[in-house]
Amino acid sequence: MKKYRLLLIPFICFLFLKLPLLNPWAYSEVTEEVFLDKVFTEEQIREIWGDYFLTLSTNQGKNLIKLYYNKSLVLTIEGIYQAHAWEKDYLWLATADYLYKISLNSFQAEKEAHSYGTINQMQIHDANLWLVGEKDNDALIVKMNYAFAELKTYSFGGEAFEQFTHLLWLNDIPYVIGQKDAHSLNGPFANVGSQGERKPFVCRLNRDFQIEQSVYFNHEAGSEHSFDAYINATGIYFLLQTKSAYHYYRLALDLTCTEHILWNDLEKIRGILSPSGFFVLLKETTEGVFWDVANQMVEDDKTIAKGQLIDFGIEEGCLVAYLKNGEEIIKKTIEEYHINQNEPLFLSYLDEEDLTKNIDVESYFEPLTVKVKEVDPFFVKTLPGEYLATYVVNRLNKKTIELTQKVIVLPYVNVINQGVYGIPFTLAFFGKGHLNGERILSGYTIETPGEYELVILDGYGFEETFLFYVVDNYPRKGGHILADYYVEKGKSVSVQVELAFFVEISQIIVNGSSHPFTKNDKTLMLELFPNEEGVTAFEITQAISNQGQVIPINKTLRTAVLRKAPEIIVKEEATDALKLTFDVRDPDNSLAALELVVYKNNQAIVTKQIFLVNEKLDLNLPEKGIYRIEINSLVERGNGIMQRKQLFIYQGYFAKTKVSFANITFNRSGRLIEEVILEVDTTSKSINPQEITVLSQNITSRYQKKSNYFTLTISLGLTALIVVLFGVNLLKKRRDKFREND
């Protein structure tokens, strides 16, 4: 083994490369406590509900139902258990003969005899008690008041056996799940399956409890039944057991199947719909018990422990599972949440609500609320820049999580010259704005059609004017018209029009005139040439056949021509100080601004938007340290499309305080920038030319950054050295062996 030890070094080098890339994104913790220090061998735990748990047992031929509170027996009822339901102050219980209302404070029980056959479910809904089950082979729903007085009974019967196992409500619309004998003479189960088998079904009822739609399941020979059923606005969730397998289903509200998973290697499975809307599963296998989310891969360790699953639920935003392990029942509490904060938020027009909406925090077990705690530096809506926001995530168990997120605010105006927008349209911009001569704030909503002039004065004294139109009855998304096609200037748009049937076409009418086209079967192909600026609408109204038949099309396509992106060439002068010239060629006036950002310890301390006026900008750094300076171009392509291109990066250590890093000079003629001069003062800092990166399309600079490849170079070098040493050692051993043979 010794001769292979050196081979571990390349592996270690590989880890050295890879480990910094690991980025954990989820939090999950499993804690445990002993719920019971002994297992009731003669009692079956039916359900655990907070500090209460219900058990079933048989003693000397008597069926007993026992209620425990704080692990002490508080009530024993004799009878055959059928169903129960918990609420805040009462436990509702059904046996084969009686209905019970048990106070969870005094543990006194009121009871009433019943003759409703088998009760599979009890529930409280709309201030009434509902019984769900079967009587005389007919499915039954009984509505009662809290005094056990019968208010209404709904019976569903046929020539075969039917029963309901679950009653689900959505906006007072009832859905039922149940079982029915297969091979019946009529109905949805007629001649399905073998006689005597029972198959599950799901029905949607109307408010008068009449069946509107039903679906049934027939997976394999033998009886099947469903359990753990829930409903919300996205569908009906339930589990189903056959003779050899378990199934998970989610049905849409129209009873079409949207999700289905099959397992045939489980000992037991349970499911519950969490408050956050996920169907959480607990699966028991021979390897142990673990949790999962239906149809979603959870990247945390899903295993809880070895043992037998007794019960589970969701308490205060945590998944709680009770497992039988030896002579104890262990309570496992699983906390988890997921945060996606790997990338900064690039926003344009925002307030605190928008900041919160862009933070992605999710939990499978609980709905989380996220609020902005603070923003550093001071957050001003109308000032572009880079900010670090701190958020507070509120948990159901009263715990809070704090997280930080970089927020980058872009300079942005959501209109273009000669743009067309639909009402209502909300303006978004940075700076002081005047709309048709009146002072407005960003966020102002235009609700009247017309022609508008928006004048914006930014914080640097640069004024810009936009003329645009707001019209009624115009397709829009969020008030801003999105084109169907975006094209570069001078390019055409190729579109297809599908006819409903094959016919020979002689003309196609676009914007009131005949337009050239080609045809392939039922497809008409057109080439459209949009106007140079703004949005162009093409109304394709009709096609005319060779026999003069008019075929309506009535299709509108909108195209937007993008402004040409500027060409920015970075030129270098080899002097003692780094001098760069940015040669800007921008015939379409698409360059909106240059952006200068200074970072210290990865925190943005200076953000300036340079709006291309004649000026000389001195940048002074407040103290010595490591700084990163970036220069970006901000390009407005049109119709709200903004682009940012990185032009220059410097990262280095400044040895003095309050030094001048650089000065920037703009020379412009009208709107067009002729050049931008950047001079770096090398005498005021410790500068290593290899720490400077220039991003350009036409130079390979001696200042380009090499440090990104340092780690890779070392690792590859070590690997090569080891391979050489290993080869030399191998050749030496072979030479010695040949000498021995000689």
Notes on the structure:
With 742 residues, the protein is mainly beta. It is built from 3 helices and 58 strands. Strands 1, 26, 27, 28 and 30 form a 5-stranded antiparallel beta sheet that branches. Strands 34-40-39-36-37 form a 5-stranded mixed beta sheet, with no helix packed on it. A 5-stranded mixed beta sheet has the order 41-48-47-43-44, with no helix packed on it. A hairpin with a 2-residue loop joins strand 54 and strand 55. Helix 1 packs antiparallel against helix 3 (710-741). The two termini are 28 Å apart.
Helix content: under 10%
The rounded Rg comes to 37 Å
Strand-pairing-aware structural class? mainly beta
Poorly predicted regions are 1-24, 474-481, 669-674, 682-715
* Biggest sheet layout: 5 strands, antiparallel
Terminal Cα separation, in Å?
A: 28 Å
DSSP helical segment count: 3
What overall geometry do the principal axes of the alpha carbons give?
extended
Mean pLDDT, all residues: 77
Total beta strands: 58
Beta content comes to over 45%
